[in-house]
């Protein structure tokens, strides 16, 4: 590891960590959500972690790593659950968690360093009556740079769609991995070059995001006799144009009762639930709509709950998105999950059909979102895992019924996404990371241009076999 | 007119106007948009106008009019274009224009007296970074009470749907027409009792509306070689979930050039136009989207226009909704218009087909809105009017192709709307206006319970023949 010694010398004065336990910890994310990734990635580890506090330090690290041919994997908070932030070829984990200042809040816009935690950004925006449009359920731990580079959407997507949509990211400042790193400012169509690229073609140092009006969202849990009713209610609610909600998630029994331990007292075991965030001034209209819909039991409303009832309850968004699975995993570590799109317009029928078909092997969990201008839903069904083969079979059952799966049991961009080469991101990698040192192994199009995405094979990064 | 003398005596101390010219002026609205209504309603006139400044005065007027059996027609700013505010049986015009205070602005909510002008409400809300969700293009003249009682939607409906949707009106304070008028506070499902009831079953004295984030909207005009392209662009834009716009209106050539006189210098005569309001921070993303779409010429952007260019230009929203027709009428007083719904999902095909079918007899004008959770469009085509028969024929041509017409050539609630009895509003009228003195002649269900809506007959109020 001679290069490493030279690299360390070059980086003198920076915060370098080489304690093996800490390095191992900072080399891991939530990959263990997947039994497949757990098997594949458990030994992955960086050589050192460098924690930077400024863009100038980022440039210094990249310049030195380029000179010494050392791979660099950028890390925000490491909450990704696809193994996105795991350094498959070792080298440096570039930790941005301390580059976390909110730089500027103006009307409709916030500018922050990439390592800023999303809830911190909202704390800074809220005095102006504003908040971020979208956040993952890891709002209180994840960084804005990690969300842009590795996330897709979440709470708020029912109003704004996802990060992939024009207008949900305004501007990115990016440092390239070259002999002399350049600073680029991307906006408009250029944002796609680095957003959701897992840091494979640049390090984002600064993020400019749109803001929207902030409210003291009311957490609401509604109960239903069947999952189908919960799903239909969610769909009808999503289509209420004048009712402002930030989150609509139907979750099939017995998941809410069995895994939402703090909320268990409000939920019967046979009850399917819709988890909601409603604007406070919309509560009257929401109640009127729910009683007209019929069959809706209000189990919990944070605006009417006693302090005693609220004691120790997590916010509703921490029951939703990947937190549903997390709460399941805490009770039953053998569980895993899928990520599915149920395409409009028969998304509800498809989701209900699959839920009935798979029964308790795959309790349904939907997330309603705006998608290409329509209200439809993603699904994150919990899977009672038996084997990799059966998991593949369940994926096929979904795809055969016209419901694409964004496979969360793969660590590559392509396999977890559109299953095709992203020409824009590949071209930008050629320009911004000519040596291929940024987060190696995550972009198949770079590692193996001839890979056949139509085959049933999953890609295996050679670097993993070291 | 003995009763009137007694009534006047009862109202002593209030602002009573009986100057015939002023009374005639305050008895009229924009009914003359329709050649049919112009013929039917031109002689309509109240006996006196009473201008009130408080709810207590409203109660005094209603109590006295009830005692003397004098009809009362409430008036906001009189900008309705269905003859809604015209006193078909004479009597009192109750003018609320001076009851116009904005009472309270809080997070997400504004409370105002019913006669407050919408732009005044926004002036009061804007220091808190907020504005109304929806406004008609008569924003700078119309009252909030008149909008709730007589309007349907407008600018902002692309994000929030219409007034009929749960959540777009929060609370109404209403005075009944009884021996002893009662004050009612309506919310939730009860709002429907009086919203869009033309003041036939109560006088709204106070309105509570939701607010949303306020921006310095950028006025944009984009040019296209054909109306079909303008309509397709508008539809694609409406489906961009991350692009925040407040207004999307494609308008067929030669209307923009011929009738938008102040903007004429930016527009070729053969150019169809999309009139847009875009959030300032969304302009980069909007431009990226427009150039990816292709064939879009940016004719005008208020954020880049010189002061000289902007001089004397009306805001884009005063080119849209019923202002498109108004600008046409100013150039060619023989024009009129229709109001059409093109139902999702083939709204664009339907609108383009009808535009091509009717050619220059009915230049197309669409307004994109959210409707039952989908993005679709209303149309307000300009009609080069020849006869009432041909107008009926054009309406039939639309309806035969699955495009319902909200006939703006009728003054009754039912004929301009759903063409059926609204049982809720009728029941509330029985309760709140037992003598039927409020805005007589506008609710067929009250005047003639046996009226056959499926017949081809239009309803003629007997009171008109006085
Ligand atoms: C319980 C749970 C719930 C979740 N819910 C959601 C959800 O609702 N929606 C959603 O989209 N995701 C969700 N995720 C995934 C993840 O939490 C989010 O995407 C989160 O925003 C990632 O942020 P992070 O700071 O943890 O990024 P990390 O995990 O540190 O990094 C994510 C990826 O981005 C790269 N990266 C990080 N920072 C930068 C940078 N500055 N420049 C370039 N590349 C960078 C990393 O290399 C990695 O590839 C969830 C995960 C868990 C475990
Ligand atoms: C150029 C132009 C553009 C327009 N654009 C739009 C548009 O975009 N969207 C739209 O919806 N409409 C539109 N309209 C119609 C109209 O301007 C609006 O509906 C407006 O909000 C009406 O407000 P007003 O104060 O003028 O009401 P008025 O015309 O005074 O009254 C409207 C109706 O409500 C009743 N009313 C008024 N105040 C009260 C009250 N306090 N209590 C009970 N009943 C009451 C009246 O009796 C009448 O029946 C347009 C009209 C014109 C002429």
Total of DSSP H or I helical runs spanning 4+ residues of chain A: 17
CATH topology of the largest domain in chain A: Vanillyl-alcohol Oxidase, Chain A, domain 3
Number of domains of chain A: 3
Which percent bin holds the helix content of chain A? Answer: 25-40%
CATH first level of the largest domain in chain A: Alpha Beta
Count the strands of chain A? 19
User: Architecture of the largest domain in chain A, according to CATH?
Assistant: 3-Layer(aba) Sandwich
Mean of all residue-level pLDDT scores of chain A:
96
- The shape of chain A is globular
Structure class of chain A: alpha+beta
Biggest interface in this structure?
A-B, 51 and 51 residues
The main sheet of chain A comes to: 6 strands, antiparallel
Work out the radius of gyration of chain A.
22 Å
Tell me which oligomeric state these chains represent: homodimer
């Amino acid at each position: 590891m001679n290069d490493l010694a030279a690299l360390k010398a070059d980086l003198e004065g920076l915060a370098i960590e080489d304690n093996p336990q800490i390095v191992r910890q900072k080399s891991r994310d939530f990959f263990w959500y997947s039994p497949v990734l757990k098997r594949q990635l458990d030994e992955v580890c960086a050589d050192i972690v460098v924690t930077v506090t400024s863009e100038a330090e980022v440039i210094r690290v990249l310049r030195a790593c380029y000179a010494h041919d050392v791979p660099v994997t950028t890390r925000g908070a490491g909450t990704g659950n696809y193994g996105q932030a795991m350094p498959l070829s070792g080298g440096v984990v570039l930790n941005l968690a301390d580059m976390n200042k909110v730089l500027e809040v103006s009307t409709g816009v916030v500018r922050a360093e990439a390592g800023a935690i999303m809830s911190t950004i909202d704390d800074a925006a809220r005095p102006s009556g504003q908040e971020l449009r979208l956040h993952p359920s890891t709002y209180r731990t994840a960084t804005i740079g990690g969300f842009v580079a590795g996330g897709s959407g979440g709470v708020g997507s029912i109003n704004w769609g996802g990060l992939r949509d024009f207008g949900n990211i305004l501007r990115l400042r990016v440092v390239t991995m070259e002999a002399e790193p350049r600073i680029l400012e991307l906006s408009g169509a250029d944002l796609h070059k680095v957003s959701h690229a897992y840091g494979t073609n640049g390090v984002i140092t600064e993020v400019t995001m749109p803001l929207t009006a902030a409210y003291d969202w009311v957490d609401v849990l509604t109960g239903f006799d069947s999952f189908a009713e919960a799903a239909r209610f969610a769909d009808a609610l999503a289509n209420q144009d004048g009712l402002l909600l930030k989150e609509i998630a139907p979750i099939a029994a017995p998941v809410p009762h069995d895994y939402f331990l703090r909320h268990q007292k409000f939920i019967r075991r046979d009850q399917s639930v819709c988890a909601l965030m409603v604007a406070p001034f919309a509560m009257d209209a929401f109640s009127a709509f729910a009683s007209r819909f019929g069959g809706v039991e209000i189990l919990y409303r944070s605006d009417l709950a006693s302090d005693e009832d609220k004691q120790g309850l997590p916010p509703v968004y921490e029951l939703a998105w990947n937190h549903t699975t997390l709460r399941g995993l805490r009770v039953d570590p053998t569980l895993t999950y899928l990520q599915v799109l149920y395409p409009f317009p028969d998304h509800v029928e498809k989701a209900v059909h699959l839920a009935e078909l798979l029964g308790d092997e795959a309790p349904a969990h939907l997330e309603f979102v705006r998608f290409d201008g329509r209200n439809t839903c993603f699904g994150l069904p919990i899977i009672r895992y038996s084997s990799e083969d059966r998991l593949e079979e369940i994926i096929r059952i979904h795809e055969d019924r016209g419901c694409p799966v964004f496979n969360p049991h793969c660590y590559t961009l392509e396999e977890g996404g559109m299953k095709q080469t992203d020409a824009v991101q590949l071209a930008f990698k050629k320009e911004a990371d000519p040596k291929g040192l940024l987060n190696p192994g995550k972009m198949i199009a770079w590692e193996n241009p001839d890979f056949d995405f139509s085959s049933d094979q999953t890609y295996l990064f050679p670097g993993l076999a070291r």
